[in-house]
Amino acid sequence: MGPTKSMQDITITLATKPKASLGASVFYPTSSPNIENSLSDVLVVFLNGLVLSRRAWSPAIHHLLSNFSDNDQHPPTILTYDRYGQGDSDPDPSDEPSSIPYGHDANEIVSDLHQLLTQFTISSPHLVNLESTRLVFVCNSIGCPLARIYARTYADQTQIAAYLFLDSMMANTDFVSIFPDPDDPGFDPGSLPSGISLQELRYARSQFCKFFHPTVPNAEHFDRRKLAEMLPFPDAPLLPLTAVPGGDRSGKKAPLLAVVGHDWNEFAEQCEKGTMAVTKQVINTFMNPAWASYNDGLLRLVRLPGDPRAVKIAVGCGHFIQKDDPEFVAREIKHLLDNLQAPR
């Protein structure tokens, strides 16, 4: 197929918000795939977390495109973008100055995403429109709950064929309450494992409150305060069924879903040595088990009889898996795309 092409930077202005622009990057396939192994109707969409912009996906996408090229295969269309107030994008014009530091919420974000995908698919050379496009969502952190809200909101207008959740944010917690409150009247100091002090527990709660509590502002002015009400359970609502390619929407099947969690030891190490400075023992005793349980719940968003799936662990990776091991992310995406072409 020749040298691997790279992503192209573009700017997109939504018809619904003409006074602001979104920074995006796109890969357009140069030649039509063969009919037998076609991904020509697939759009892979990357959904960022709060911290890393769309640029953080570039190494993983490079590995993905190289994989296709090395195997003489045709990749699908790929889209990354920065939400309003993030990366190369303008601030959200719907935010009122009086609402700062809080502005738009998750519902507004998924509405913008739907408008973006509607416009993008119509203008793309290999896609017809959004309704006839098979979407693949690749998400990290808060991008995962956003994908779930989008799927629920636009179930009748889209076909989301596959999801890759990379260390999803735990949408149903304030993060602080994961740790026991040593100042609660009912707290039993004897319940703490040996080696964890009350002072360490208080410090962990204060640090997670400072950095991760839903009331903490962010550069996007993304108001996360009601996210736990919107997604109170990791395993519900179920991800919508998707139409069978080539058929009508009456023939539907479960979407593909892969859930990836961080490496406990690496995450704990990063928490201890980074800005958080919370000890590994505290993280491994409270935070990591809670996160693992949440990830197990995410797997149940797709119900299949005799389902052998399990949460995959990105060995050596902390929360930002696409940054710590882009080759791993590329392999996971390729695996999903290969399965989209295989009979199910």
TrEMBL record:
Residues 77-103 are annotated as: Disordered. GO terms for cellular component: membrane. Pfam families: Abhydrolase_6. GO terms for molecular function: hydrolase activity. The keyword Membrane does not apply. It comes from the Eukaryota. Keywords: Hydrolase. The keyword Cell division does not apply. SUPFAM superfamilies: alpha/beta-Hydrolases. InterPro entries: AB_hydrolase_1, AB_hydrolase_fold, AB_hydrolase_sf. Gene3D superfamilies: alpha/beta hydrolase. Residues 44-331 form the AB hydrolase-1 domain. PANTHER family: HYDROLASE, PUTATIVE (AFU_ORTHOLOGUE AFUA_2G14860)-RELATED (PTHR43798:SF33), MONOACYLGLYCEROL LIPASE (PTHR43798). This is Alpha/beta hydrolase fold-1. The lineage of its organism: Eukaryota, Fungi, Dikarya, Ascomycota, Pezizomycotina.
